[in-house]
């Protein structure tokens, strides 16, 4: 077959064991099963692979997604776990999503009336995020109508500041959510994101928790000691060329870096088109031949350059961009002046996803 001998030169390796351990730790702290977000290609880790690993985990109740396309993709895997859509679909998509068994978000009486009779709904309550959902004073009426129609399964809200040191607003949001739940029959209620699980622990009356980035091994700096979470992904790419630049010569676009002396460089097959942030130029390091070495010159679309002087590096050798130890996604995010979410979810399709035990 054409292309069967052509291989990716960059790989994102996911540790199933690390993911499973993180999920167990988070479920134990929340004291409820998990509704695991696998949106945005499972935070860059690979939708299908992560969904399959998670679906086997005894602490995972279901999988949460952000778009109808993601919902359809997860439902097609037939994993035997509920799929919850967290953002509103178009009216024309309701019937098909309900046929697939996808749990649907509802935030208004109009949406409640539009649901097919065989749908299952999760009432979206806006307790202060002010992004989606019914305000508490309206949510009760919407929830009651869903209950009358026999389609109400769950209710949820989203914390805006549970990952901040000041938890006063998170407590206020939860108080508002509890006020809505008190006016409705028992539901699969869920509120805590990863920050909420780490900062607030078990919340009374909640039946599920939704740890996003925490599931993949990351916590806000002030919460990193709460649980021993392990980053799940290791990103690597191959050396494609090794050459020497002479003292004083410039390297890459814009000539930002000049060799202070004759310098051996490795060209590596990964760049900003693969999701590695261009803003990390001049600050980033990688691990090669067991040593931490600097990238030099501007990061390119498909390639980057690494100073490998004094090392025995050959074409085909592996360069690690991040992993559980040494250089982490948090380091890369700091170099690029962004957050781990953006770095992980920005990984491109040219990077081959692999799952290890």
From TrEMBL:
Pathway stated in the Swiss-Prot or TrEMBL entry: Amino-acid biosynthesis; D-alanine biosynthesis; D-alanine from L-alanine: step 1/1
Domain of life according to the entry: Bacteria
Protein keywords: Isomerase, Pyridoxal phosphate
Names of the cofactor(s): pyridoxal 5'-phosphate
Identification of the protein by name: Alanine racemase
Gene: alr
Stored Pfam families: Ala_racemase_C, Ala_racemase_N
Family: Belongs to the alanine racemase family.
Sequence intervals crossing the membrane: none
InterPro entries on file: Ala_racemase (IPR000821), Ala_racemase/Decarboxylase_C (IPR009006), Ala_racemase_C (IPR011079), Ala_racemase_N (IPR001608), Ala_racemase_pyridoxalP-BS (IPR020622), PLP-binding_barrel (IPR029066)
Catalytic machinery residues: 39 (proton acceptor), 253 (proton acceptor)
Positions bearing N6-(pyridoxal phosphate)lysine: 39
UniProt-annotated binding residues for substrate: 131, 301
Entry EC no(s): 5.1.1.1
UniProt-listed Gene3D superfamilies: Alanine racemase, Lyase, Ornithine Decarboxylase, Chain A, domain 1
Domain Alanine racemase C-terminal: 232-356
Known role: Catalyzes the interconversion of L-alanine and D-alanine. May also act on other amino acids.
PROSITE patterns assigned to the protein according to its UniProt record, in alphabetical order: ALANINE_RACEMASE
SUPFAM superfamilies to which the protein is assigned, alphabetical: Alanine racemase C-terminal domain-like, PLP-binding barrel
Record's keyword annotation contains Isomerase: yes
Lineage, uppermost ranks: Bacteria, Thermotogati, Deinococcota, Deinococci, Deinococcales
Catalytic activity: L-alanine = D-alanine
CDD domains documented for this protein: PLPDE_III_AR (cd00430)
């Amino acid at each position: 077959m054409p292309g069967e001998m052509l291989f990716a030169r960059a790989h994102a390796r996911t540790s199933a064991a690390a993911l499973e351990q993180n999920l167990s730790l988070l479920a134990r702290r929340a004291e409820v099963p998990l509704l695991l977000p696998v949106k945005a290609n499972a935070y860059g880790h690979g939708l299908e692979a992560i969904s399959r690993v998670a679906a086997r985990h005894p602490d995972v109740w279901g999988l949460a997604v952000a778009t109808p396309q993601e919902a359809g993709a997860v439902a097609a895997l037939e994993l035997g776990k509920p799929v919850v859509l967290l953002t509103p679909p178009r009216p024309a998509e309701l019937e098909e999503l309900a046929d697939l068994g996808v749990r649907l978000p509802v935030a208004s009486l109009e949406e409640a009336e539009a649901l097919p009779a065989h749908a299952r709904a999760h009432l979206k309550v806006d307790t202060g995020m002010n992004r989606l959902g019914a305000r508490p004073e309206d949510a009760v009426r919407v929830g009651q109508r869903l209950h009358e129609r026999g389609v109400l399964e769950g209710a949820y809200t989203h914390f805006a500041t549970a990952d901040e040191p000041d938890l006063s607003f998170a407590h206020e949001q939860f108080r508002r959510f509890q006020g809505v739940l008190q006016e409705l029959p028992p539901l699969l209620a869920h509120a805590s994101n990863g920050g909420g699980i780490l900062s607030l622990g078990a919340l009374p009356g909640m039946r599920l928790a939704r740890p996003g980035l925490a599931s993949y091994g990351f916590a806000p700096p002030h919460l990193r000691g709460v649980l021993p979470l392990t980053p799940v992904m290791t990103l690597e790419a191959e050396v494609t060329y090794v050459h020497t630049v002479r003292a004083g010569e410039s390297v890459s676009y814009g000539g930002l870096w000049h060799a202070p002396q004759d310098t051996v460089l490795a060209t590596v097959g990964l760049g900003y088109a693969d999701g590695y942030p261009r803003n990390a130029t001049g600050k980033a390091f990688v691990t090669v031949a067991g040593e931490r070495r600097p990238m030099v010159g501007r990061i390119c679309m498909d390639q980057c350059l690494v100073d490998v002087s004094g090392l025995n590096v050959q074409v085909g050798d592996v360069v690690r961009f991040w992993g559980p130890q040494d250089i982490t996604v948090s380091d890369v995010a700091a170099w690029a002046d962004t957050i781990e979410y953006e770095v992980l979810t920005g990984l491109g399709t040219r990077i081959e996803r692999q799952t290890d035990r």
